[in-house]
Amino acid sequence: MTLPHGTVETPVFMPVGTQGTVKAIPQHLLEALDVRILLGNTYHLYLRPGHEAIRRMGGLHRFMSWDRAILTDSGGFQVFSLSELRKVTEDGVAFRSHIDGSSHFFSPEHSMDVQIALGSDIAMAFDECTEYPADYARARASLDMTLRWAKRSKDHFEAHKHDRPWGPEPDEQTPNLFGIVQGGMFADLRRESAERLVEMDFPGYAIGGLSVGEPRELTREMIAATLPLLPADKPRYVMGVGYPDEIAEYARMGVDMMDCVLPTRAARHGLLFTSEGRLNIKNRQFAEDQRPADPNCGCLVCSRYTRAYLRHLMQAQEPLSAVLNTLHNLAFYLETMRRVRDEIAVEKAGQSAPQTA
Ligand SMILES: [Zn+2]
């Protein structure tokens, strides 16, 4: 993907930087990990420090000193999952802040204005994330509203996407708006949602409403049912997944982009993902273990620190614990995607090589 802030090789895993920071990891270390794109949360940044403040600071890139690409979500998911007393109408969602109880209103147009103020490379259409379980009628109604909101998002985004006081983007690339497929756990609704979104012609498409509590097999089934209906020459993004083996599996199916709080959140709880499976670094068995977290990982943490030390930091509740655990988990996720990209490159080379047998 060629974006205003650089080129991103796909399939790609995007670390989540909820509050303008990937928790515990400073930006120069994200660069050392070769992170090319990260995710910012519109809902959180809108509430604190506020999108107008960020606009005055020159956009989110300048505010957080990050020159590489940023994708922002629409705020919809957090409005539905975090805020209190929300009221959904055709016009949008009224809600109260989870921080101070103040009243707010998000519409497709307002979500676009916030994302434009943040200056994201990829903005997401405002959608309703259909809850799980939802019956057919509920999923149908939710999907219809999301499609009407997608149209409104696109119209507003196209009219205002250059309203950025800090001037043209570095290489004058246009910011992008992606549409989001909904439809609950019903393959025919997913199909209809995908087809109607493709008619609206977005530069990329996301599959939303997954990883909301449904069994893993169903997640896979919905992705498999939806992917072939989305143009293969445009980015296809599955939101909010998953475990390392899942992201590798989905990438092999043709998913180009994924994001998840799992590697960062789990790290802060002492759960490390390794080539030998999951490791709970708090366990007593690691108290004097001289090996690195993952003997097959070449990351900054594994090349320097022992399991015994990582366990000690966790036990002593030292802030460095979150830093090192998160660094390793992110390195492991990024390496997982790099390996899939290499596999795909080898496959392609094999397909284009002359037949010798
Ligand atoms: Zn490592």
Please provide a written account of the structure.
The chain is of the alpha/beta class and 357 residues long. The two termini are 36 Å apart. Helix content is 42%, strand content 16%. It has helices spanning 27-32, 42-47, 51-56, 60-64, 76-81, 108-118, 136-160, 187-200, 216-226, 244-253, 262-268, 307-315, 319-352, and strands spanning 2-3, 6-7, 12-14, 16-17, 37-40, 69-72, 84-88, 93-96, 103-106, 122-124, 176-181, 205-207, 236-238, 257-259, 271-274, 277-280. The chain has 13 helices and 16 strands. The strands form 5 sheets. Strands 3-14-13-12-11-10 form a 6-stranded parallel beta sheet. A 3-stranded parallel beta sheet has the order 4-5-6, with no helix packed on it. A 3-stranded antiparallel beta sheet has the order 7-8-9. Zinc ion binds next to helix 13.
